[in-house]
Structures are given as C-alpha cells and as structure tokens.
Amino acid sequence: MVEKVYGIGVGPGDKDLLTVKAVNILNSVDTIFVPISKEGRSSVAYDIIKDVLNEDKKENIVELLFPMSKDIDYLKKYWNDAFNTIKEANGEVALITIGDPTLYSTFSYVWSSLKENNISVEIINGIPSPFASAGRLNIPLVEGDENIAILPQGKDLEKYLGVFDTIVVMKTKSLGEKLKKLVDEEHKNDYIVGIVSKACCENEEIQMGKIDEINFDEVNEYLSLAVIKKIK
Amino acid sequence: MVEKVYGIGVGPGDKDLLTVKAVNILNSVDTIFVPISKEGRSSVAYDIIKDVLNEDKKENIVELLFPMSKDIDYLKKYWNDAFNTIKEANGEVALITIGDPTLYSTFSYVWSSLKENNISVEIINGIPSPFASAGRLNIPLVEGDENIAILPQGKDLEKYLGVFDTIVVMKTKSLGEKLKKLVDEEHKNDYIVGIVSKACCENEEIQMGKIDEINFDEVNEYLSLAVIKKIK
Questions:
Q1: What is the nearest CA distance from B42 to chain A, expressed in angstroms?
Q2: ipTM of the shown complex
Q3: Fewest C-beta in 10 Å: which of A196, B46, B86, B115?
C-alpha cells in the first residue's frame, strides 16, 4: 500500500513557476500520477513539469483519467478508480494538478478518500490562477481593507457585483452577457475587467478595460478567468 | 533611473516554497529592496530568501522602511520615500514581499506610483498565505461549485458567514469574540475553523475544530489567518 501521497500544484503553466519544493519532490517520489481528461489526450499538468524531471523519473508516470462531465455519479466512478490506483502504488507518490491543490483542483477528487483511509497526505502549493492572472494584468487583486470573492462560473455574480471590491470569476463562459444584463448604462464605467486565458503560458491571451471595451466574443474560454474590480 | 522593477512574492516562509523563477531573478537583479517595519528590525521577507542568494548578491540589499500604522497620511510619506529610492536605483531591481504581491502586499504601496511613472513592472507570484494555510490544514479551500470570500481583519464577517462556503479571515484579532457573538448555540457545530499562524515556518502554529474547540486565547495573532468552512 502507498506510504504517502503528495498533492502538488504545478501552477498556471510556466515550469519556472513551480516551487523549488515541487521540483525536488517530483524528482524523489516513486510514481507521479498525472491527470488526463480523455484517453490519448496529453496532460496539461504533465506538460508543465516534464522538463524539470530527471530522465529516470520520466518512466514513473502513470495517467489517471478524470473525464469532463457534470454528472457526479458518472464522475465518482472515475474518482474511485483513481483513488484505488493511488492506494495500490508503492512507496511515496505524487498527484500533480494545475494551479494549486486547494482551489478547485483535480486533487480534491481523491483527497477525502485518502484521508478517510488514513493515508498520509502532504500538500505542496502551486501558484493559483487568479494570482497569476492578476500578476499578468499588472494589478493588485486586493490592497488595504478591500475584500474579494471568488465565484466558480460566475455563480451568484448578481449578488456580489458592486458589493465586493474585487470579484474573480473562474471560467468566463457567458460572462459578457451576464455583465451587460447586470450593469446598466449609468454604471458601466464603474468597473475594470481583466480577462486572462492560459496565464503565463506561451499562448496566453489578455484583455483589460471597461465592460464595453472588452471583446467577449474573442475570449478563449479554455483555462480563462476574469478579475472584476470596482473603480474607486 | 531604474529600468525595471520586479515585484517578487516570497511565499509564506519556507525558502523551498519560492518559485524557480523568483530564485533566478533574485540572483540576476542589480538591487534587492527588502521591506522592514522598523529601523534595526530584521526583514521577514529577507529571512526567507537569504539562503538562496549567491554570496555576491548579499551586498546588493537595500532596506525600505514601511512602518506599521493605520494613519494613511503618515504612511504615504514612507511609501513615497520608498518609491523615490526605487526610482533612483540603476538597472533592474526587485522588491520582495511575503506571500504574493497581488494580495494585501507591501508591493502595492509603490505599485501605482511605478505605473504612473511608466516604469516597467513585472510580477513574480509567490504562494499566497490562505493557500499555504489550507495546505497545512490538509483541507481544500473550495471544490466543485463552492465560493469563497477573503475578508481583511474579518470585516463584514457578519454579512458573509453562512453565506459563503468558505471564508478566509486575514488577521485573527478578536475573531473568537466575533464568532461567538455571531453564531448561536443551534449553529455552532455548522462550521469548521482552521487557524494557522506563520504557515510553513519553523514556528508554525495550527488549530482546527468546531468553534467551541478552538482556544482563541492561545492563537498567536502575528501572521495568522482563519479558514472557516460550512459543514455540509
């Protein structure tokens, strides 16, 4: 049975944004589990780490299938399979996840099963995507006594827009329509919106401006998020 | 005049949680500015990086004084002095900040002045403290469609407790009193509270449990934060 599982965040996409600790542990574990979303498709997380691995470590990669779906019962079968594969591994292993393991991560699909089975877990944080995106936008997320809300897929945006100093919307699908419905003519200049797709990757795309200045049709929705700040 | 300013996050306290990029840039810049809160006091941020610097780089350290105060007019004088010192430096420089530069950081005190003066800024993210703390608590901050709010000093906690799936309170002063006032007998088991002081440092302190199980008198308030999760 596995001795220890490291949940390692590999950050937004640039291998140099890995922590020193992540690089060291990736090169010390017996097996590295990498998530894929479909058989035969390459792993985004693995692409980030592959160039920091020693040659002999590249033989210790095992893919775990985490399909994209909204059907939780269907997904749970895969989460359980992944847990069983990890449990049966030998020695110390790592499961890598893009961004940070504590923020909407693939690691959370096996985390509670590992703990319930008293398997030792250690989290190695990675740079979370909202922070990488704010860095690339060259703006602070929050300063002083400002507050911030992070909303998945813009859920409850109507409740919190204008209430929080900063809102991060994870996944920007339909965000343009939502914002144009929520914000009337009088208030459309009250916000600055930054949209980042694939922060820190080679094919990063960035837009920043008032609501009317953003071309929402051109936003690449894959690995994208929005930072919405109230102008003071 | 300075050519470029890197705002470098040095993470929560463990030098191995620096990113590879941060280590490389710290060893390439002409000057490293380190924040201190009082003349003669050592810099927490510098203590994190000192062992990753090449010997010759240790001569290029310049302290900047950012006193602790709530008097913004008094502080602005120091922020302006810091900006002027940075502006007059030669070549490429770095200003280091604990945690991440985009989240309540020392870097934000000079950031807007740098931009207004068209000085090139590049942000190198660090691991933000809420994420390091959740990692040490061995719990996800958010998963699935959960939302999260980050509140400085627990401002507006009464509005958002029970509303957000997860709340992070930066600085835990008076948090015990606030929680006991806000949560009645019937609901006191509805939350799990994790309190972390100096996450990932040698003298890290952790408590986790229901509200009644936390000994708030023993919480070290320096560099501390709370993660409050609704139990489902």
A1: 23
A2: 0.97
A3: B115
